[in-house]
Amino acid sequence: MPIFKVDLLSGPKLESIGDYEREARMKLSPDVREYIFGATESGETLSRNVQAFSKFLIRRRVLQNIDKVKTHVSYFGGQIQSELPFFPSSINVTPLYPNALLDVLGLSRSFKVPILISSLAVSGTIDLRELPKLVPKTSPLIWQIYFHPENYDQVMKQALSASDWGYRGVVVTVDTERSVKLGYSIPKSIFTHDFHNCTPSDIRKVRKATSLPLLVKGVMTPEDAEVALESGADGVGVSNHGGRTMDSGEASIEALPKIVEHLRKKKSTRNAEIFFDSGIRKGTDIIKALALGARGCLIGRPYFWALAVDRKNGMKTVTTILREELVRTAALCGVSDLSKVDPKTVTAA
Ligand SMILES: Cc1cc2nc3c(=O)[nH]c(=O)nc-3n(C[C@H](O)[C@H](O)[C@H](O)COP(=O)(O)O)c2cc1C
Question: What domains can you pick out in the chain, each with its CATH number?
Fold first, then answer.
């Protein structure tokens, strides 16, 4: 009879993002758990974000020269470099624990990737002007702006200085214009303001204030992507905010190919950088988004789970898991350079 040894000291198995999700769910206090896991109203958009990746299948290739898979990608004409085609999205991590943003920045010690800085996470003793000094130049910080009625003028002023402070790009998140009925609650300590309803004129003002690469995040239709670019943005972030703003919407991965097709058709928008987020949980999700036209993927909830489970090493381990899954899949579908994934890498299910 075989004897199975049970090692009670070795802790939980943490080999996939799903493992981190399960572990974080157990560890977090109820209100923070609701804040991170929650989505708007019925949560339909959030589930659809994750499930809709299965509408696209990866085409297995063999007899390919895939000894090495290049993972480096360069954005905005070389102004931003990344050793991976995915990196941390702008996420307000402060409700997890004070100064959690500093542990997000810790990723720069292990990976040369850009990091988006949520303006909501810049609180307490953290000074927006000082953050770029805390990371090596190989991890460009991209400042994400939320406009609120009470901070509007101040943010416009800060945009004038962002480049001098060392930021390498600016993101304006435009999809939180309405206080919707949320299916989750935000602890009162974190959230007190209303959002400003962004219009093209706001994007034009930010464009005037800074010459840094400018991205408009929260675009879900071809027509809005075009307006964002016409207003001066250099790129768009195809995102439905992880299903946190409107219920019963398209999954972000369903919207992506339509936006890509529209922008690539026109000369004036052909070269725009297209980023993607919402629902990424696996390396295969990333390769599908790249094949459908995204040049970079932003990671949200998986990094919350990483920090919830392991403050010190979670960001690094979750990035390593996604990288390994991505590189392995790339090799198996004949992709040797992740900056040039062929659309033929995927097929409709
Ligand atoms: C708890 C939480 C906080 C977030 N905070 C911000 C934020 O401060 N700024 C922002 O632009 N997006 C924010 N987002 C949206 C993320 O940047 C990203 O679009 C989203 O997490 C992607 O969905 P996924 O996490 O399900 O993949 C937040 C998302 C979550 C789950």
Answer: 17-338 (3.20.20.70)
